[in-house]
Amino acid sequence: MRRSVIALGAGVALALATSLAGVSAEAEVEPEPDGTLTVSSSRVEVGEPITLTYFTYHPDPENWVALESDGGPDVRRALAPSAKVGTATLSTEGLAPGTYSASFRAKENSVLLAEPVKFRVTADEPLRFLTSSIPLRNARALAPYRATVGGLVRHAGDDLAFRKVSGPRWVRVGKDGSLFGTPHQDDAGPSPQKVTIEARNADGETSTATAEVHVGKPGAQLVPHLRMMTWNMAYGGSEVNGARDKQLALLLDHDVDVVGIQEGDADTAKELAEALGWYYQQTEDVDGDEDSVLGVLSRYPILSQRPVEVPSEVGALAMRTMISLDEHHKQDLVVWSTHLFYEPYGPYDACFGRLTEKELIAREDASGRTAEIKTVLAAMQPDLQHASRTPVLLTGDFNAPSHLDWTARTKRCGSTSVAWPTSILPAKAGLKDSFRMANPDPVSEPGNTWSPIYPTFTGGYGYDDHVGEPEPQDRIDFVYFKGGLSALTSDALAPGNPEPAPQHRDNLYPSDHAAVLSVFRVR
């Protein structure tokens, strides 16, 4: 929700992912890093020091090196003084196991002097699969199939190898964790085929998991039901320990097919896709703006070589990706992901400021969100016009509620109804709100997504005198759709009874927004 960017200007146009449109051509461009940085090991145990060796053509006593957690703020820092070549040693004591980046930066402006280097901090724990049950992409009888579980083992050690323990004859398992083969006609059925897989390392440690594959009949729809999620990942998950594995576990536990990502970091979609063996696209990480990155993650192939972006003054306002759900039936899907500006925030204005509906709508206009959603919908028009042929989904953190939730029955903060533009305008464009299609009653099913870790208001937005009062809980994350889809179910997900901030570091659920998972019948 709390994006530290300014609202976009009007009249922006589409640009490719590699474009910096929306950033002033006169803006100073940072030089490419021309130094080097290496780490003493690609993997260290918690508590072991890590030694960084650096080289730069720009030595300075105030240059510095740092360890950063999954794209988040630095967690360890040390000076890298004047010599062109030098070393610095940093402690890993107290760090949570996970992936970290080592960076080498200039004194005042934090410009990178060398490309960052990734390494893993591990704990003295046994080899294990991330989950015991691993749902994989669907298969079709008589058609070649391939998937992988190779990225889902932790504390692997050296010489990791996989083998098949049991399962249908058509499935083979490679040493790298790949599953491949061609199912027979009699393998098709309503229940998934189960393959037990063992991982073993050089120390003789083993772990097993069961992969599940739904096999359809020859000529049948490959994906009759689509499990679509939108997820604001809260700075890539950097505020929760071990977030990447927790993100992966949620996707696997809920058998998700496609995810629209908001507030990813530069590596979120890439690292999730590599671990799962999925496909991904994401927008540029502009000037290290950790919550400017949008992404789409998919079990099924992405057709477009690059995402199409709707740029804003900083980062991207929205992105578009086309996915092939079923090449045999030419069944494609267009997915958009967006993140609208966060301030001023309507529920605070209504609940704390007691503004009238007219005043609330004026504040929405002032926030830039009304202009933003108009811009996004304008960019979507060609897709919306052809939605009967290729279904369209709009996912995102809208930072504003829905008019379907603020009604005379709900009487939120005393309001009888509010025509929030960010939900009215998508509806006028023919988009349907999947959560409200599956859960029509906003009283019995509020579907709140902001926020599972903020039960009380913590200040800001001009309402510091309301600190400690109940946080206005609301539904501000959406999965909209148009075309050949029918919403069957939709849920707001934040499992594990998250602890409130600031005690949220060890939460099982790694975000401050609930995710929304909508299940569709694909027509």
From TrEMBL:
Keyword Nuclease tagged: yes
GO molecular-function terms, A-Z: endonuclease activity
Protein name, entry field: Endonuclease/exonuclease/phosphatase family protein
The organism of origin for this protein: Streptomyces coerulescens
Origin organism lineage: Bacteria, Bacillati, Actinomycetota, Actinomycetes, Kitasatosporales
Key words, A-Z: Endonuclease, Hydrolase, Nuclease, Signal
Keyword Hydrolase annotated: yes
Superkingdom field: Bacteria
SUPFAM superfamilies named among the record's database cross-references: DNase I-like (SSF56219)
Signal sequence interval, chain numbering: 1-27
A family per Pfam: Exo_endo_phos
InterPro entries: Endo/exonu/phosph_ase_sf, Endo/exonuclease/phosphatase
Endonuclease/exonuclease/phosphatase domain ranges (all copies): 229-513
